[in-house]
């Protein structure tokens, strides 16, 4: 690890801790100038391909999932920490399937299951886009399911 202060290549680990997002936070000290700095390490995971409804494939992107959740929870009393935690749980569920390719439908279901517990209005908003409600009957049917639970 190169020291950001002097560029020396030798440093020693002073402290190491896991973080909430699964990475490892390390405090390091340069053996040349004694400058202390922090690094974060993350386990490199195999990429997961998302198979979209039209058959296209693209790499799983948690930022896209987060963007959809943020959009559905707009103007709702849901904080960003809850939404990022939700996305993290969804990614864990997707990786837990043990597959290299996962359908966008499965990912959408994971998101909806998490949103239902977080905020019912955000859930309905997400479901209306995800399930492509065609008319008021589709909307009311989903709303009745939520109200029944």
TrEMBL record:
Region described as Disordered: 1-23
Annotated signal peptide: none
InterPro entries in UniProt: ATP-cone_dom (IPR005144), NrdR-like_N (IPR055173), RNR_NrdR-like (IPR003796)
Keywords: ATP-binding, DNA-binding, Nucleotide-binding, Repressor, Transcription, Transcription regulation, Zinc
GO molecular function: ATP binding; DNA binding; zinc ion binding
Domain ATP-cone span(s) in chain numbering: 48-138
Keyword presence, Zinc: yes
Statement: the UniProt record of this protein carries the keyword Manganese: no
Ranges of Polar residues composition bias in the record: 1-13
Ranges in a coiled coil: none
Function description: Negatively regulates transcription of bacterial ribonucleotide reductase nrd genes and operons by binding to NrdR-boxes.
Family indicated by similarity: Belongs to the NrdR family.
Family annotation (NCBIfam families): transcriptional regulator NrdR
The protein's name in its UniProt record: Transcriptional repressor NrdR
Organism annotation: Paucilactobacillus nenjiangensis
Lineage: Bacteria, Bacillati, Bacillota, Bacilli, Lactobacillales
